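Q: what does this look like with molybdenum atom bound?
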Amino acid sequence: MPVYHPPRITPSHITARDVYLSRRHFLGGAAGLLVGAGLFGAPARAAALQTIPGPHGTDEPLTPKDIVTSYNNFYEFGTGKSDPLNRSGAYRPEPWTLTVDGLVARPQTFDMDELMRSFPLEERIYRMRCVEAWSMVIPWAGFPLRALLDKVEPLGSAKHVAFVGLKRPEEMPGQRGMFQPMRWPYVEGLRLDEARHPLTILATGVYGETLPRQNGAPIRLVVPWKYGFKGIKAITRIALTEHQPPSSWNMMQPEEYGFYANVNPAVDHPRWSQARERRISGGGFLSGSEHRPTLPFNGYGEEVAQLYAGMDLKAHY
Ligand SMILES: Nc1nc2c(c(=O)[nH]1)N[C@H]1C(S)=C(S)[C@@H](COP(=O)(O)O)O[C@H]1N2
Ligand SMILES: [Mo]
């Protein structure tokens, strides 16, 4: 069973300059690997990331890395849990740019390496609850979405944030063929105050390495108090908007998946109960799964419940 040792580096041990320099070093190595990948057809390897410990961690047992990276939802590669790992070999998540625009004073298109250099990466160990009633504990590496939004200076008229995934059928087999589960690209959205909440991150890594394709390389959203489908993978564009943006699962089945998608044991999915969940963990001799009660806001109520003060969460599911 893989044992993960969280980095022991404290903020005082590592400066932004160290992060910058080590990352430049790794980028040089990654470029070399890419050339190798082009020549030999081998996938680019995961690169180690340096992170500083972030807030809001949990000491619950981590879900083992091999499960986090092999049991996935990423319909661009197919609807099966192993499709994202097994059918993503043609996907090239680099080079990559992320455009941040809409109702902002300074719209910008960032190169992925520029983005990685701009913010110190934090390790955030979060619970992840899928709407299908399974859950994991995952050590992400990333930075607060708020830090990126600050760079582009949202206008006073901006009330929401829209996220757009990638449409590249030649690399994404789930986007080809007759049966299409959803319209592409995958899209998601948050209210601006949810997007600016300190728990909301853009993740560029997991388990101390750059994100594998199946987990949303090179950059994905993580909003730990909401169902997993809000955490859009392979983000190409973030746009500040006035009105509530569309959400892929909501468009597909509006009576089953709402815009808010806050984890809530009191609001059942029309086809199953949300009162309990199956935690896929690494706690025992063999990693297993354990049934446990679902927590309101996935256990982050103290941090986020005030965002929804006065709202009927049964109506705004
Ligand atoms: N672009 C995109 N993002 C996506 C999905 C998807 O199909 N496409 N699936 C979502 C769902 S339903 C879940 S539960 C999480 C799963 O993240 P993980 O595979 O990294 O655990 O990704 C979410 N983000
Ligand atoms: Mo999900």
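Helices lie at 16-40, 65-68, 83-86, 112-118, 145-152, 192-195, 248-252, 301-304. The longest strand covers residues 134-144.
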